[in-house]
Amino acid sequence: MLDKKVKIKAVRDLGAGNHLIVIASPEQARLVRPGQFVMLKCVENTGENPLLRRPFTIFNIHRNARSGKPAGVELLVKEVGVGTRRLVSARPGQTLDCLGPQGHGFQLPSDLPSRVTTACLVAGGVGIAPLLLLAESLLALRVKPILFYGGGTVADLVLREPFERLGIDIITSTEDGSHGERGLVTEPLAQFLRIHPRKDIRLYACGPWGMMRAVHELAVGHDLQCEVSLEARMGCGLGACLGCVVASPAAEGRPYLRVCQDGPVMNSRLVRWDIEPV
Amino acid sequence: MKPNPNDRAPLKGPRLGVEIAGVHFKNPVMTASGTFGYGLEFARYMDLNAIGGIVVKGLSMKPIPGNPPPRVYETASGMLNAIGWQNIGAAEFVEEKLPGLRDYDTNVIVNIVGFELEEYLEVARFLNDHPGIHALELNISCPNVGKGGFHFNKDPRDTHRITAEVRKASPRLPLWVKLSPNVTDIREFARAAEEAGADALSVINTLVGMAIDVRSRRPRLRFRTGGLSGPAIKPVALRMVWETCQAVRIPVIGIGGISTTEDALEFLIAGARAVQVGTANFYEPAASERIALGLAEYCRSHRIDDIHEIIGSLKDYE
Ligand SMILES: Cc1cc2nc3c(=O)[nH]c(=O)nc-3n(C[C@H](O)[C@H](O)[C@H](O)COP(=O)(O)OP(=O)(O)OC[C@H]3O[C@@H](n4cnc5c(N)ncnc54)[C@H](O)[C@@H]3O)c2cc1C
Ligand SMILES: Cc1cc2nc3c(=O)[nH]c(=O)nc-3n(C[C@H](O)[C@H](O)[C@H](O)COP(=O)(O)O)c2cc1C
Ligand code: FES
Predict the structure, then answer these.
(1) Of A239, A243, A254, the CB nearest to B72
(2) Residues A93 and A136 in one domain
(3) Fewer CB in 10 Å around end: N or C, chain A?
């Protein structure tokens, strides 16, 4: 939506390569809807490598401590490569190019024809990023969110506190059993859906491809609707390069959808799960 | 009527206008095909009126679905892409996008693609009749399409043939031919296109490249190879533009890694009549506007009245 030079306010190390980055940008913060992202240049100079900006979900709106007005956005950034490494080592006060908020966010139950009373939010690791703003919106609509939060180990289960503060039930799982149930996050989810065979549940998932695929299959198996927040490598983040596509079974003659524009959040039935986009 | 004391004679700015095949461009900066969508995507990030022209994404008559992902990968100072000519088709472009573009005071150039000669001719014929299009840019050089068809960029005789045929199919529109850098001697292809009636040449398209994920041992792109673009290719592009300018009399439009005013100046000095900004639009959506303003500023500060004083002004060592 807007292309701004923004200032980094703070970088907080959350362990295991995860960082919370606070960016000052009131104009952009005011426009954010749950599930949207920003395209952030990871270094100060526009012409410097890495050249392409990187997409990051808006985890939270940063609010002015006194007025409560939107002052910026908070991003959860996991260090995985050259861009994220530069970004998490940025110092407060540093200026970066920031485009956003971009993309199509979550459909809230208020926009839906059928009644939803319970929302299963399913996160794998940094896939937690889009779910806080979603949870807040759901609570405001009197829909009960339940968070299923999985990771490899306990250190991957970052930023649970803001969800706890909202009073949300959190069911954690880790592959090594260091927190919550041992195993994949889809196991407690499958169990929950088994013992609650209801039609007024909606699923929202973000995490690794395989996890989202498994959540999609559970949704189909229980005849429930599921929205996923997808990842793809992006060129422009604004709909122009067609680099970020995901294959889709739905669109006749148009078998690809753009993650940056038609997504990043899509109904899981719009995605062809046999072609991983990254 | 009393003269308004605030009215001064307007500052005489440098003349940046150039002409390509009888079409006037207010300045020599355009955006490159495939890097600027259908143009309107960028309207909220920059002033589309500030640039000389917009070259839209390569269009075919029927929509093309494109390649399966992953389609892009960043490499040192550049990127690889294998989009595979995905586009909405010329009819939808004319109906849905062109009217919006015509609201802007800039030239619209349509890049055309096809798998077979007849497909190129069909889209060229169709576009010939539509007002609001200022030129066709014939893309014979996209490396990202696997299946069959002619390879019009492998043999200068094929370049000659397709240029001549498209020339006939769209007699009303100026025809630019966009050349591939993936050849031994680009001058042969440049001459072939000129002889066949091209009005201008766009130089260059992307260089075929590859990247591999050593963990999975798979190519980073599902198509395996892709087109390299961005600052990494600028020296190669500049050399090819310079060579092409020596070989032909028709205008040459320089493309490849341009992301600053200085980059644009290099291409102009090498002989390019105009330039196109490509990959830079991705990481700086207003790059083309900034470069256009930068050229004006450069001329002003160097007391250059007309951009033609720069074009082709390359000097030799004593
Ligand atoms: C809509 C969207 C929202 C995202 N939100 C977040 C977020 O909130 N927090 C977060 O930490 N990350 C998020 N990501 C992923 C993030 O963009 C990538 O991790 C980042 O681009 C990697 O950049 P890099 O230069 O560090 O890695 P590179 O050096 O480019 O690559 C390092 C490794 O990361 C993988 N990778 C690179 N880009 C992506 C990508 N886009 N998706 C998946 N894998 C990738 C590569 O295959 C490679 O193995 C999001 C991605 C998208 C598309
Ligand atoms: C994602 C992408 C898509 C492209 N699509 C087209 C296209 O449809 N037709 C075309 O002639 N060139 C296409 N190109 C090539 C560019 O127009 C340009 O020639 C090339 O990228 C070199 O310029 P640059 O280094 O400034 O990007 C594409 C380039 C990129 C990066
Ligand atoms: S990233 Fe360019 S179209 Fe989505």
Answers:
(1) A243
(2) no
(3) C
- B224: CA distance to ligand 1 center in Å? 20
Mean pLDDT of B82-98: 95
DSSP symbols for B161-182: HHHHHHHHH-TTS-EEEEEPS-
Which numbered ligand comes closest to the C-alpha of B86? Answer: 2
CB contact under 8 A, B72 and A278: no
Cβ separation B281–A97 shorter than 8 A? no
Q: Which of A27, A45, A52, A271 would you mutate first to test chain B, the one with the most B CBs within 10 A?
A: A52
Q: How many CB atoms lie within 10 A of CB B229?
A: 30
pLDDT at B301 over 50: yes
State if pTM tops 0.80: yes
Q: Using CA atoms, how far apart are residues B134 and B18, in angstroms rounded to an integer?
A: 14
Per-residue tokens: B97:
């996008």
Q: Give the pLDDT confidence of B219-236 residue by residue, as tens digits.
A: 999 999 999 999 999 999
Beta carbons of B232 and B257 less than 8 angstroms apart: yes
A2: chain B residues, CB-CB within 8 Å: 44
Question: Please, which pLDDT band fits residue B143 given cuts at 50, 70 and 90?
Answer: low
Average pLDDT, chain B: 93
Q: Whose CA is nearest to atom 1 of ligand 2?
A: A241
pLDDT digits 0-9 by tens, A32-59:
999 999 999 999 999 999 999 999 999 9
Does B236 fall in a domain? yes
Say whether residue A53 is in contact with chain B using an 8 A CB cutoff.
Answer: yes
Q: What is the mean pLDDT of residues B114-130?
A: 93
Chain B hits for A254, CB-CB cut-off 8 Å, are 63, 65
What number of C-beta contacts closer than 8 Å exist between A and B? 108
Q: Which of A215, A231, A247 is the last residue of a domain?
A: A231
Statement: residue B9 has pLDDT above 90: no
A53 with A97, same domain: the answer is: yes
Q: How many helices (H) and strands (E) does chain B have?
A: 9, 16
Q: What is the pLDDT of residue B81?
A: 97
Question: What ipTM, to 2 d.p.?
Answer: 0.95
The answer to whether residues A226 and A143 belong to one domain is: yes
User: Is B102 a residue whose pLDDT tops 90?
Assistant: yes
Q: Are residues A143 and A51 in the same domain?
A: no
C-alpha to C-alpha distance for A230 and B130, rounded to whole angstroms: 39
From B254, B253, B260, select the one nearest B295 (Cα to Cα): B260
What integer pLDDT is reported at residue B3 of this predicted model? Answer: 52
The answer to whether residue A252 neighbours chain B at the CB level (below 8 Å) is: no
Domain that holds residue A165: 112-231
Q: Sign of torsion, CA B1 B3 B5 B10?
A: positive
Ranges of chain A with pLDDT below 70: 250-253
